[in-house]
From TrEMBL:
Function per UniProt: Na(+)/H(+) antiporter that extrudes sodium in exchange for external protons.
Gene name as annotated: nhaA
InterPro entries: Na/H_antiporter_dom_sf, NhaA
Keywords attached to this entry: Antiport, Cell membrane, Ion transport, Membrane, Sodium, Sodium transport, Transmembrane, Transmembrane helix, Transport
Any Pfam family matching the protein: Na_H_antiport_1
Topology in the lipid bilayer: Multi-pass membrane protein
Protein name: Na(+)/H(+) antiporter NhaA
Catalytic activity entry: Na(+)(in) + 2 H(+)(out) = Na(+)(out) + 2 H(+)(in)
Region (Disordered): 423-446
Stretches assigned to coiled coil: none
Record keyword Transport present: yes
Length: 446
């Protein structure tokens, strides 16, 4: 019996025009989201290191919400538990769409980003544990911090410096980041749940089931769905499981394909695409930047404080995991898939391109900060060291990737300009209309 992967002939082969158009649109939106995320981070750092730093801490610790179900939370906790649930809901929708209706519904195309994501989780975690082996005092609890890739930052950097890179590479990074986030939410649910209350967790299944029934019937009424989603989130939060898990569970219930009653594939976007279109701007422009603003601010204490933070074995492990562990894990997993399937890189691509994306995946901002807070406690000294390390590691990864991908982008820009000169200007590039043998390819519509 042959492996389902045995039919793979090339890695990062060109996908359909519809998928390419969709990925391009996501990159445009994430450029804005990444810019807002950067602004929020810089603002938090400036305020936390200004003479008015006490005001920043006071703002983070303001408590709002009812006492019922333990919802009297600080603003910092609301951002981590509440706003990031929106982020994970959108990530869950994207992941489900990729594997149900996207180009990655084929096992041979999905194998590479999934394997790369797993490699990018395992190797940084192992490297972190090796670095902090003798650190003691619970340092090992932070092993998952360098395993995450920040979708908004990574795609924003790619959108700015890699506009001419082949669409297959951009799809690879997007899918890798989303699978990475799914792995992170599983890690949070399994390893960072201190106390588990069974009754609220079982109770969450009731609104979740009703939500699932309604969306399967293609109900879009927010006044029905939003209270059910909020109830599911609140009960998951009360159970002791991190509330962002509710976002992924809700997303996985949403149907991707259009219903036959709606008229089939020509009837408009499916419900998952509809929700993603509505909520991605809220996630990218509000949820993630607000979380960054309330989480990234850390008082450095001058040069000596920065040196102290970065020489902590925990910080060294995080920076090493993001800058070294991530690219090594992703490259190794990708190479192993190629070796196992006897596949080769698609024509015109180079392993340097893969290396650039693997380094870019070391931007581990949002989810890394969240895991750091769960591992060491919000506002603790080690949490401050985690923030410094995540910022330094992510910035280093972004700069190294920018150098490599900028050089490669120039090569692909010349190629795309040459192809544009031969284009028939029908809105679909000629390379998506012909097969490698020169026969006309069916024209997919976005």
């Amino acid at each position: 019996m042959s492996s389902p992967l045995s039919g793979m002939s090339s890695l990062f082969s060109r996908g359909s025009w519809a998928e390419t158009s969709r990925i391009t649109a996501i990159l445009r939106r994430e450029t804005v989201g990444g810019a807002l995320l950067l602004v929020a981070t810089v603002a938090a750092m400036i305020w936390a290191n200004s003479p008015w730093a006490d005001g920043y801490q006071t703002l983070r610790e303001v408590t709002v919400g009812p006492h019922v179900l333990h919802l009297d939370l600080t603003l910092a906790t609301w951002a981590a538990d509440g706003l990031l649930a929106i982020f994970f809901f959108v990530a869950g929708l994207e992941l489900k769409r990729e594997f149900v209706a996207g180009d990655l519904r084929q096992v041979r195309r999905a194998a590479v980003p999934v394997a790369a994501a797993l490699g990018g989780v395992i190797v940084p975690a192992v490297l972190y544990l090796l670095v902090t082996l003798n650190a003691g005092d619970g340092a090992g609890r932070g092993w998952a911090i360098p395993t995450a890739t920040d979708i908004a930052f990574a795609l924003a950097v790619l959108a700015v410096i890699g506009r001419h890179l082949p669409s297959a590479l951009r799809t690879f990074l997007l899918t890798l980041a989303v699978v990475d986030d799914l792995a992170a939410i599983v890690i949070i649910a399994v390893f960072y749940t201190a106390q588990l209350s069974i009754l609220p967790l079982l109770g969450a299944l009731v609104p979740l089931a009703v939500f699932a029934v309604l969306v399967q019937r293609r109900v879009r009424s927010w006044w029905l769905l939003l209270p059910l989603a909020a109830a599911t989130w609140a009960l998951v939060h009360a159970s002791g499981v991190h509330a962002t898990v509710a976002g992924v569970l809700l997303a996985f219930t949403v149907p991707v394909l259009r219903s036959e009653q709606a008229g089939g594939p020509e009837a408009g976007p499916g419900l998952a695409e509809h929700f993603e279109h509505r909520l991605r701007p809220l996630s990218a422009a509000v949820a993630v930047p607000v979380f960054a603003f309330l989480s990234a601010g850390v008082a450095l204490g001058g040069l000596s404080g920065l040196v102290t933070a970065l020489t902590d074995p925990i910080s060294v492990g995080i920076v090493a995991g993001l800058v070294v562990g991530k690219p090594v894990g992703i490259m190794a997993a990708t190479w192993l898939v190629a070796r196992f399937t006897r596949a080769h890189l698609d024509e015109g691509l180079s392993w340097v391109d893969v290396a650039g994306l693997a380094i870019l995946a070391g931007i581990g901002f949002t989810v890394s900060l969240l895991i750091g807070e769960l591992a060491f406690g919000i506002g603790s000294e080690r949490d401050d060291h985690v923030k410094v390390a995540v910022l330094v590691g992510s910035l280093t990864a972004a700069l190294l990737a920018a150098v490599i991908l900028r050089l490669r982008n120039r090569v692909y820009r010349r190629i795309s300009e040459a192809e544009a000169a031969d284009d028939d200007h029908d809105g679909i590039p000629d390379l998506y209309q012909t097969t490698p043998s020169g026969r006309e390819r069916p024209q997919d519509t976005p």
